[in-house]
Amino acid sequence: MRLVVDLNRCQGYAQCAFLAPDVFAMHGEESLLYNPHAEAAQREQVLRAATACPVQAILVEDPDAAPGAAEDELSHVR
Amino acid sequence: MTQETLLRQIIDYDNRADPYPLYAELRKTPVRQEGDELFVVSTYWEIKSLLHDPRISSDARNLSPGAAGTLLQEEEASPLPPSFLRLDPPEHDRLRRMTMRPFGPPETPRRIHNMRGELARIVTDLIDGFGDRKQVDIVDDFSYPFPVTVICRLLGVPREDEARFHTWADTIAAGLDPAPGQDAGEQHRVTQQARTELGMYLSGLIDERSGAPGDDMLSELVTQHGPDGQMTRAELLSTASLLLIAGHETTVNLITNGMLTLLRNPEVLGRLREDARLAVPLVEELLRFEPPVQLLPQRTTLADIDIAGTTIPEGASVWLVLASGNRDPQRFPDPDRFDPDRKDIQHLGFGSGIHNCFGAPLARLEAQLALTELTRRLDGPRLVEDPPPYRQNAVLRGPRHLNVAFDGLRS
């Protein structure tokens, strides 16, 4: 899956790095590193991060696609 | 309706169940003067702009003497220094940065993510604890104990001490929320006693952890030797108390408001039961629609500030009514409708700017998990009373009890 972060919008709130640490990482306090071609298995993490972004800077390609092979993380509870 | 009565009405307990019409009235004057040195800001863009304005202070020492006596400004006398919640840069930045090191990125990016399994187990245990009952109080039986347990695990409070921790947290919470007719002096004494005991307990735990650190957050706070140096004992105690109190007094309301809102919107509840992924946007909409912190009453101005045709003078007390900004029709279409499919959802539920909620990622996960599991496991849930009885507190607004009847528990 492809994603892009609008770095002009990003203000370093770091919600994505908390919620999807396999895809987003903070380098120092303000700059963001991320994988623009995240694995399908990370879709849930990525959507969690994109939704939580306080400045809505994360754009995800085809966010409504089926989760595919990725197991819904919440289903671990069951 | 005079200005004075409008603000009093918002604080008045009789309006706790539905303050939103009063906020709509407030928004007719975006920056409203209430008495000589108190200004109430109620529209989205004005609140957002002030949250990002370096001329706004969170430090009570910057209030003018006249403003210091206004509503909700009475401070608990505390032997501890102010936490970073009540400080400005550079002291705020240093303490917040030091607290973030063992909590999140860049130094500890996985702590919260790695707690997911443990959060899920705590949720499951609490729901299993409903047993054969056909009615529970979502507050006392679930949304109160859940975040307290989480904060204990995060800080590294040993399991055998958790029950004592819950007792202190309960007492301090009751002190933030005095019942009408209660003996104020006696309540104050009991609350101070709990604060003292909690402080002594934390102090002992700090001693223990500095000698034999674990991988918990308190151990790392105690032993860190980063570029910002070390926290003093007093700073450690202030910070740990802040994490404890701010970490659960708010989350309890987020989860309870969430169940209440779902039970009032059965179609959304049904969708969440079918698809747990809905929990993610749903919690964001909840933070807009029923934010756990309704207003920030503790800001002050470091200079005269011109905004929305009004000049707020230096040293005035400024209230930022987040819950009103979240319902501002200039910002959100159809704002009084709860709509988890809303795409444009930059709410003020966690504040904004340098004091944005420190625990936001943890609160998000706690609420997502809690609401998903309560919805999935309660069979035929329904409100016993609507509206439910509310806590006294107008700032940390939420139900005191939320009695929910149901037909049984699903496995």
UniProtKB/TrEMBL annotation, chain A:
Record's keyword terms, sorted: 3Fe-4S, Electron transport, Iron, Iron-sulfur, Metal-binding, Transport
Statement: the UniProt record of this protein carries the keyword Chaperone: no
Top-level division of the source organism's lineage: Bacteria
Cofactor(s) the protein needs: [3Fe-4S] cluster
InterPro entries to which the protein is assigned, alphabetical: 3Fe4S_ferredoxin (IPR001080), Fe-S_cluster_ET (IPR051269)
Record keyword Transferase present: no
Functional note: Ferredoxins are iron-sulfur proteins that transfer electrons in a wide variety of metabolic reactions.
Protein name per Swiss-Prot or TrEMBL: Ferredoxin
Organism: Streptomyces gelaticus
UniProtKB/TrEMBL annotation, chain B:
CDD domains on file: CYP164-like (cd20625)
UniProt-listed PROSITE patterns: CYTOCHROME_P450 (PS00086)
Keywords: Heme, Iron, Metal-binding, Monooxygenase, Oxidoreductase
Entry protein name: Cytochrome P450
The keyword Transferase is assigned to this record: no
Species: Streptomyces gelaticus
Similarity comment: family membership: Belongs to the cytochrome P450 family.
UniProt KW Transport keyword: no
Superkingdom of this protein's organism: Bacteria
Pfam family, one: p450
